[in-house]
Q: What sequence folds into this?
């Protein structure tokens, strides 16, 4: 149990870091949207590709913040039956709760398994590490080769307006679902000893926390 708690604390911190990164994406999106409003109204020059930026950012925001939602037990679900069961049949409710966590962990692992080939394919389309099959050859200059590689990537958006490589979005989805799967399995193992508080050092049993509330 001590080993599981130590491992869990590491992944809980990783979930919080992912949540913070998602918050930074939200902040950047707010800046872009406000800049677009200002540019439209005062300069009569809207920023091109804002809609595409919003769509792309929403994918990053949702999946980067999802692991911390799982960590805090705030993922939307219907748990009325479990709430009643905990007061009358706590042992049965505990078994059901862990079974739900295991099922959710398996589901997230399946999504990760499905997304991994897509991530590899979209990343390899850029030819960051291998010689390209078409287009300009590598020059040996890091920035020049990086810019050329990014232009080769499978992209999202409208050419000439806004395009972005697909692999960062696929990476966010794959990373998020893999981390969520691990968190669900840790919750199933640790049960009421799982970390669900706001800070990484706040290891509070669920039973104690519920009494405080």
A:
């Amino acid at each position: 149990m001590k080993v599981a708690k130590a491992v869990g604390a590491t992944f809980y911190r990783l979930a919080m870091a992912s949540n913070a990164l998602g918050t930074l994406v939200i902040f950047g999106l707010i800046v872009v949207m406000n800049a677009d409003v200002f540019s439209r109204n005062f300069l009569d020059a809207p920023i091109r590709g804002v809609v595409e930026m919003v769509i792309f950012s929403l994918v990053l925001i949702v999946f980067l913040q999802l692991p911390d939602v799982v960590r805090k037990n705030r993922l939307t679900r219907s748990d009325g039956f479990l709430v009643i069961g905990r007061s009358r049949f706590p042992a049965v409710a505990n078994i059901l709760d862990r079974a739900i966590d295991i099922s959710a962990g398996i589901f997230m692992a399946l999504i990760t398994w499905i997304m991994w080939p897509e991530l590899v394919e979209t990343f390899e389309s850029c030819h960051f590490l291998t010689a390209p099959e078409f287009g300009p050859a590598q020059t040996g200059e890091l920035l020049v080769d990086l810019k050329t590689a990014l232009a080769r990537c499978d992209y999202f958006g409208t050419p000439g307006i806004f395009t972005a490589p697909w692999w960062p979005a696929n990476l966010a989805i794959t990373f998020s679902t893999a981390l969520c799967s691990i968190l669900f399995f840790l919750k199933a193992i640790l049960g009421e000893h799982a970390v669900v508080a706001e800070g990484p050092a706040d290891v509070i049993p669920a039973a104690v926390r519920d009494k405080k509330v």
